[in-house]
Design goal:
Elements lengths: L11 H7 L9 H7 L4 H4 L3 H11 L7 E5 L6 H12 L4 E7 H4 L7 H18 L6 H13 L5 H13 L6 H14 L4 H13 L1 H19 L6 E7 L6 H10 L1 H4 L5 E6 L8 H4 L7 E2 L19 H12 L4 H4 L5 H9 L3 H17 L7 H18 L2 H13 L6 H8 L3 E4 L5 E4 L7 H15 L1
Parallel strand pairs: 1-4, 1-5, 2-3, 3-4
Antiparallel strand pairs: 6-7
């Protein structure tokens, strides 16, 4: 992830650079400078729940945690905070940006097995810990025997292994794993070949992985008594249907490994009918949107909760000099309202407003720059929504809940519908979607039917 400048923005050009939608706060300096604790305004202590689970975990035991929330709600920033908090409390923490390692649009459980294999091997290499050749020979031979690599690659890798055996197996073994994982990022044909081989031998692959993780834990437990904590971010971007297969059909294969795992999962899975038949590593921990509204089931157009609206606006205030950047300091509340309580949407609108102001040669961001940016966000949603979607969105606005079907999962996945939590759990259409004339038409139609 791109790091952020640590100097508050004073003009539109600087603001454009400091509001990056995909740049979560990472590292103590960035967190100390810009982090805003929104947990009271989400009305849920999701991150504290995860920390409690980690604290209550005994040494030598492992757990699997599912962490969910809408794309852009701030999960990555919170996970980086968990990394910082726990890296000196008994865990060796490994943060994995899965989207950079695997194709999240075409992923299966064996891809995650290989990713975990590789990341732990790389971490041992970083720690300069060598695992004896005999301890991984069985695993290495299994990869060769199953022909995960082609024959010429096997010969090349074997020569490397033999040549470096004297300095410890970890270096070449990590290199071998890197070569194997590159296969699942290659062409579709190659990925399918490797995947079919691994899927035929899932139990052996899992056994090999657990054997390796167990040896890895023993090698670090004096310094890290709770072992490895792997945080697999970005898996909430796996499309709903694919995610159902991954986390429900193969959920049992993804838990029970000899390390502690935090998987991010799509929030749509918590609305899946498959959840009745199986669970995702127990109840997932949910990070809901910042609840900027006053909940009223009977109102279509909800009023804003001013303290919580101000809280999410603080995400902007922390990064800028308000007087120098905005023509009107209250403009940040306009952006907060348009965000719907979604941190990434707030940052997207802010970044676009800064760009438009810079393009129009405005010394400060004006209301017209913000209005243009909010409209662009609205148009983005309109391009992906169908007429039938608007009918569903209007029902959500009226009922404050959404059905558990395929269309609902898509609308949750693409953040057209948002979840809010706390004393009540309820749904509401995205604030910029509600601006659309197509949405207003469907809502007026429902209201007309109710009058009749």
């Amino acid at each position: 992830m791109t790091s952020l400048p640590l100097k508050p923005a004073t003009n539109p050009g600087e603001a454009y650079k400091i509001f990056l939608p995909d740049a979560a706060l990472q590292g103590k300096e960035a967190i100390n400078s810009y982090y805003v604790d929104l947990s009271p305004d989400r009305q849920k202590q999701a991150v504290k729940e995860i920390s409690s689970k980690l604290e209550l975990q005994d040494e030598g035991s492992f757990s699997t945690i599912a962490f969910t929330g809408h794309i852009g709600c701030g999960k990555s920033t919170e996970l980086f905070r968990i990394k910082e908090d726990w890296k000196e409390k008994g865990f060796r923490v490994v943060f994995v940006q899965s989207i950079l390692e695997v194709d999240v649009l075409d992923i299966d459980h064996t891809s995650l097995y290989l990713l975990i294999f590789q990341k732990v091997a790389n971490e041992l290499e970083t720690l300069k810990i060598s695992i004896n050749d005999n301890e991984v020979k069985e695993i290495k031979d299994w990869f060769f025997r199953e022909e995960i690599l082609e024959k010429d690659e096997i010969i090349e890798s074997s020569l490397g292994l033999e040549g470096e055996a004297s300095i410890g197996i970890n270096l070449p073994f990590a290199r071998l794993l890197s070569r194997i994982t590159s296969k699942i990022k290659g062409s579709a044909t190659e990925r399918r070949r490797v995947r079919e081989t691994l899927q035929r031998n899932t139990s052996q692959l899992r056994e090999a992985l657990n054997s390796f993780l167990n040896r890895a834990y023993k090698s670090i437990r004096d310094d890290y008594p709770k072992g490895f904590l792997l945080i697999l971010d970005d898996l909430d971007k796996v499309p709903p249907k694919l995610a159902e297969g991954l986390f429900f059909d193969y959920g049992a294969q993804l838990e029970g490994l000899n390390c502690t795992l935090i998987y991010t999962i799509p929030i749509s899975l918590t609305y899946s009918l498959k959840k009745v038949a199986g669970s995702i590593f127990g109840d997932p921990t949910i990070l809901p949107m910042v609840n900027i509204y006053e909940f009223d089931k009977d109102l279509d157009d909800l009023k804003f909760n001013q303290p919580r609206l101000n809280a999410i606006a603080d995400v902007i205030r922390k990064r800028v000099n308000l007087q120098e950047l905005f023509a009107n300091e209250d403009s940040v509340l306009r952006i907060a309202e348009a965000s719907g309580g979604c941190v990434r949407q707030l940052i997207r609108i802010m970044r676009k407003s800064a760009l438009i102001a810079f393009t129009n040669e405005h010394q400060k961001i004006k209301e017209e720059d913000i209005e243009y940016s909010v409209k662009q966000e609205q148009f983005d949603f309109e391009r992906r929504l169908s007429t039938n979607d608007y009918a569903v969105l209007a029902q959500v606005c009226k009922n404050k809940e959404i059905e558990k079907d395929e269309r609902a999962q898509t609308l949750l996945y693409n953040t057209s519908v948002l979840e809010y939590n706390g004393e009540n759990r309820w749904n509401y259409p995205n604030s910029v979607v509600r601006r659309s004339s197509s949405f207003q038409k469907e809502l007026n139609h429902l209201n007309t039917l109710n009058i009749i």
